[in-house]
Amino acid sequence: MQDRNIGYFFIVFASVIIVLAGIKSATAIVIPFLLALFIAIILSPSYNYFNKKGLPNGLSLVLVITIFVIFLASVAKLIGTSAQEFSSNIGSYEQQLSGSFHKITEMAVSLGIELPEEEITSIINPKQIMQLTSGIVQGIGSMFTNGFVILLSVVFMLLESGHFVSKITHATNDNRAISNIQEIISKIKRYMVLKALISIFTGFVIWIALLFVGTDYAFLWAVLAFMLNFIPNIGSIIAAVPAVLLTLIQLGSVSALIVSAIYVGVNIIIGSVIEPKIMGRGLGLSTLVVFLSLLFWGWLLGIVGMLLSIPLTMMAKIVLDENENTRWIAVLLGTGENLEEVK
């Protein structure tokens, strides 16, 4: 019996490796599909709303897609020029950032604090920081290079969403299985819609704050904050780095400290207070799982995988939580705050 269990484990392990290898080799297909899936989940409440108001499916779909395309085109137009300008000025920003670090070191020396400038520069390399920032900015743009394929996929997914549960109901007579599937779909939809709304609000607050401070490319950093807000804890830190450094170069250390305080305040108020109350504590992931999922999905799907890492992991956690045999894995992925409820 033990040999059989060991053999089964190796078969499952080998199957997982083969599936992951297949996903990695098919990223050109997988990434547009995942983006379309998440967009369809976020847009589905609007589509269902128009249907409930008595509009035909076709008209509801046209309205939702039209609104989405107009919104996406407006955002793309606003960030397109800023992203190009920022990328073209990377070399100049590197030099100015090195100069800013040198001034900070001199200021510290004047206050009697000796800082090892060479060691700090080797650890916090301005060139690497700016190249990483440029890579993230370009990665956001590359997400929608297959825009037509993604949009077409969203259209068919929305059309299918109205009949998906009905198909499952007719395919099986197991009421418990139907109930579990409906619960999983409902939880995933709720999580994605609420997370998207909270992320939009986060980006809006960052945009207004950066405009008030006077940081260049404020809308670009707001979009970055919106995208990276899907990554708890780590995402807000990554989103703050380019805005703080650019403010340091452009407006000086005092303004950079103000921008840092803004990001910290937004992260504490929205991320630690408002979001848990709206989302519910049961939909949290431990910090270790957040970091590991960021590394794993980033390795598997690139920058897009990093941006989608937490939604993908949350979807897996929701699915695992609905099955008694796999619920222990969902508990391990969670924050541990709802263990009493699980018991």
Task: Describe this structure in a few short sentences.
The chain is an all-alpha fold. The chain has 14 helices and no strands.
Can you describe this structure?
With about 350 residues, the protein is an all-alpha fold. The chain has one domain (about 25-335). It has 14 helices and no strands. α2 (about 25-50) packs across α8. The longest helix is centred in the middle third of the chain and has 39 residues, at about 175-215. It is globular and about 80 Å long. The model has no long low-confidence stretch (mean pLDDT about 80).
Give the SSE order as H and E letters. HHHHHHHHHHHHHH
Number of domains: 1
Assign the structural class, choosing from mainly alpha, mainly beta, alpha/beta, alpha+beta, or little secondary structure.
mainly alpha
Query: What is the radius of gyration?
Result: 23 Å
Count the strands? 0
Q: How many DSSP helices?
A: 14
Amino-to-carboxy terminus distance: 30 Å
Strand content: under 5%
Helix content: over 70%
For this entry, what is the oligomeric state of its chains?
single chain
Q: Give the biggest beta sheet.
A: none
| Overall pLDDT level | 78
Low-confidence stretches: none
Overall geometric form:
globular
List keywords for this structure.
343 residues, mainly alpha
Topology:
Elements: H1 2-25, H2 27-52, H3 57-88, H4 90-110, H5 117-123, H6 126-142, H7 147-171, H8 175-213, H9 218-228, H10 234-251, H11 253-279, H12 287-321, H13 327-333, H14 339-342
Helix pairs in contact: 2-3, 2-7, 2-8, 2-12, 3-6, 4-6, 4-10, 8-9, 8-11, 8-12, 9-10, 10-11, 12-13
